Write the structure tokens for this entry.
Amino acid sequence: MKVDEKHLIKSKLPLINKAYKAIITDDEDILFIGKNEYNNKIIGSLLDISQEERLLSYLHSIPNDNLYFDFLNSKISYSEYLRTVENLYVIKQNFDRSITRVYNIQYEDIVSDYLPIENTFCPKYYKEHSYDYTLNLRGKEADENKGDPSKVGMIQKRFAEFIEDRIKNLKGFNVAPKANLVPHTAGSFNINFELELHQKKYKTDLFITNTKLDSYINEMISYIVESFPRDKECFIKDNYEDSAKIKSLNKLFIDLYSQANIDAPEDVSTIVKEDILKAVSKIEKIVEDMGESYDRIEILNGKENYEVRLGLLDKTNVTQILNSLEEIDIEKNGLKEDEYYKDYQVYIYHLNTNTRVGNALIKNAENSNEMSKPKIKIMGDEMLEKTKYTKSLYLNQWIDVKAKAKKIGEKYKALEIEYENE
Amino acid sequence: MTFEKIAENNKCKCLDNTSEDTKNKYYRVLKKGNAELNAQDLLTNYENNIKPKFDNCEGICSNRALSFEITNDEVKEVVLDILRTKFGITPGLKSRFATLIKFEQDAGKLKQSGDDKYHYDFYKDDNFDMTKVEIIETIDLGQQNEG
């Protein structure tokens, strides 16, 4: 493909020098991804092979993360991707693979014969699932590669529990999952996990490699982040016929059993539905500290050059997810709110003394052996340091407070605590 | 069969795990400008003097192989979608036509490669020529795409 020489530049920016992965090959790699020396993600395709000039022409582009994953997850076509991406280059390579020229072009500079056919998407077979996960914390301090060890530790623990729980919910599999932490990689602030599965019984030892447990977990994560709020009414009405996504999760769940040659339970849709709700309530705990040292979490599956984004948790969709869960909960179990401040005994285990928001333990009203972990907000504007409200944190004490409680069923969801001078 | 061209100037075991297949049908996307399969469509990058993209055995072997997609009635639609994607990504390189063929005895050897489970690398026997393929039909991927 001919390119106007006025676009010629001297730059290594669009050249891939690591994490190369071919997506489509036909004699030559025709669609591929990789990273440049500055760790920018690159998507490339082969434009032309000219026998006369003995040149290969490639189209390289440097997308932002959203665009990158939208194309790789087949959400947008290659045409749409190229029309949107800002950094577009043509690379000319000799048959001996030496680079001859790099051109910085606009979409309009691509000769029409070489423009991808409309509605051509990244192939679905590229979506390889794996047991490797990365949580990429973004925004605020995380963008400076900083992470508060206690907060990072909490996210690690909760995400590990999240993926372990999905597997524990597969009755009859006898699989003991263990999420191992692996060293973090460059990026904003990356927390890497590798899920390890152990067979509890030798007799079922062989099936695990053929069973795509990862596909179920990954689809569940994508579902919660992308689709759960849209299915709120299905959960409220207990009617899942209208949700293609829930049907697809049910099918994946049944497939796991047939892959493992184990009889599937009869009440699959109930198990999956309950698993979704349990998973969503775990998400609530994973994002508990969002907004302090980071403002979004990107959940990735796969290793560096095989990464697929399962979902992005930011303030907007976390609010939608959690509000949907609360609405479902209220519809099912009813909401009760105190009209006046009442006496409660709480253990405040987390408190931001600036925002006056945190979490507490409180014994359930009907069954004191069970506890709720409501959100708390301490009213007023007096300093909270060295008051009774920090005694749980520093002296491990239960505290008597006056509060208005919000309860769904028997569980306390929120406490508005009146500030009292001692 | 002999594969001296495949083994020329390298120590890679390109033929490991390959086998001859005269029973299954395979699609080959044609080169830009071609509406039917000709000898030019069956030249490898190595024969066209294009060096491998990577100098490891995977790169060297695939440089000396031709890409085909295995098909049958059951998976035909899935495979045609893959072919349309290949043409759709690189319409400046690929033709909108693909030819369905069967290999004759002693044509060469095949092995599956890559994430696409229908994708096969075909290693030509040293005496390979156009008589070693039985052409079944040529289809128009563009028309299929629009239909």
Notes: The interface with chain B takes residues 1, 20, 22-31, 45-49, 51, 54, 56, 78, 95-97, 111, 113-117, 119-121, 123, 125-126, 128 of chain A (CB under 8 Å).
